[in-house]
Amino acid sequence: MTEELFREDATLLECTARIVAVDAAGIELDRTVFYPLGGGQAGDAGRLVLGDGTVLAIADTRKHPERAGAIAHVPVAGDAHADAALRARFVPGAVVTGIADAARRRAHMRFHTATHLLCALVPHAVNGCSITAGYARLDFHMNEPLDKEALTAGIARLVAEAHPVRHRWIGEDELDANPGLVRSMSVQPPRGLGRVRVLEIEGVDLQPCGGTHVANTRDVGAVVVTKIEKKSAMTRRVVLGFAEAEADAAR
């Protein structure tokens, strides 16, 4: 299994690791700061660097499709001959420094925490989620109308209140005793490990979550609701964007 350093410290962007396997899925390390696609959150990108400075760009990070607990770092595709020569140096046993893209990770952290604030404002189950560096969206199981300006104002209020954000682990039995903690209809907490990671925004939200988050709601910054869509009779989609990106696009 790959040691998941990002679970305990989302601000950690760099680590030294050893390559344990290389296959069609990507490069597997014994430990990593790269978050793999999952729970609606996009995977990290970045680079792996050998001791002599040779760099291999990583386009995405995924859970290995065949080895449970393994994380695959997916190289950027390019010229086939150049890729083959470069990747021939990234072999099992080699020691590398893994460096996650800081801007991408920061955007994921801000948006993912913002979706938890949105969950606190919309008291309905979630049946779809997507968190990227450019936007975030939640699909709520509901048929009532939602107000874009009111939700934007609600998120801004929770951001300004500067609530601490932290994670902790609870036993599966504790989760079973509190089924209301699970808000998602589409993604269930992983079972079989004996414990479940929960994300707590003090006084605002508490639910199982394995993603990366900021340490305080004030670090979310200015996030706005850019769109509300009726996707079906019982689904309302809310799309979030960064206020600074929306302002740039309007110029």
Describe the model.
By secondary structure, the protein is an alpha+beta fold. It has two domains: 98 residues, Elongation Factor Tu (Ef-tu), domain 3 (Beta Barrel); 146 residues, Threonyl-tRNA Synthetase, Chain A, domain 2. It has five helices and 15 strands. Strands 2-3-7-6-5-8 form a six-stranded antiparallel β-barrel. A hairpin with a 4-residue loop joins strand 5 and strand 6. The model has no long low-confidence stretch (mean pLDDT 92).
Protein traits:
globular; alpha+beta; Elongation Factor Tu (Ef-tu), domain 3; 15 strands; single chain; four-stranded antiparallel beta sheet; 251 residues; six-stranded antiparallel beta barrel; Threonyl-tRNA Synthetase, Chain A, domain 2
Shape: globular
Catalogue the unreliable spans: none
Mean pLDDT across residues:
92
The CATH top-level class label of the largest domain: Alpha Beta
Structural class: alpha+beta
Strand order of the largest sheet: 2-3-7-6-5-8
Order of helices and strands: EEEEEEEHEHEEHEHEEEEH
Proportion in helices: 10-25%
Largest sheet: number of strands, sense, barrel closure: 6 strands, antiparallel, barrel
According to DSSP, the number of beta strands is: 15
Determine the CATH topology of the largest domain. Answer: Threonyl-tRNA Synthetase, Chain A, domain 2
CATH superfamily of the largest domain: Threonyl-trna Synthetase, Chain A, domain 2
Distance between the first and last residues' Cα: 48 Å
In DSSP terms (H or I, runs of 4 or more residues), the helix count works out at: 5
Rg calc: 19 Å
Number of domains: 2
**Percent of residues in beta strands:** 35-45%
CATH architecture of the largest domain: 2-Layer Sandwich
